[in-house]
Amino acid sequence: MSLLLFLATLPSLYWAQPVETASAVRQAGIEQLCVPPEAAAAWQGAGFTAVPFGEKDRRARYRSAVELHDDLRACRARLAAASRAAGAAVAAPQTARGLRGLLRRIFKTG
User: Residue 110 and residue 100: Cα distance in Å, rounded?
Assistant: First the structure.
């Protein structure tokens, strides 16, 4: 049951196995899958909604995922830099007050 729930959460399932595995796929409750373009007609003939998904499509999606990952990494770096800058701006006055207080105690002034 948990495998079925996991598969239901996937936007699509790529299945490169031959159409002879159709009974196992149907038993898992899967009715729509992405298959190699040369196997799409066979899977559709077996009663499945088969979306052709070739090497070109895979490369395009992989490239999109890599670009998204790079964008997220750049955003994290900018956020970290902003956090460090904000932390330094807050720490600077505290350090200055601490230093002034130390100097006042040393020299016993005001």
Answer: 11
pLDDT tens, 29-61?
888 888 999 999 999 999 998 888 888 877 777
Last residue in a domain, options 14, 31, 53: 53
Q: Are residues 22 and 49 in the same domain?
A: yes
Q: How far, in Å, CA of 61 to CA of 90, rounded? A: 43
Final residue belonging to a domain, choices 53, 69, 89 = 53
Residue length of the chain: 110
Per-residue tokens: 17: 């196995």
Q: What is the pTM of this model?
A: 0.47
3-state class of 105 per DSSP? helix
| Residues 43 and 58 both lie in one domain | no
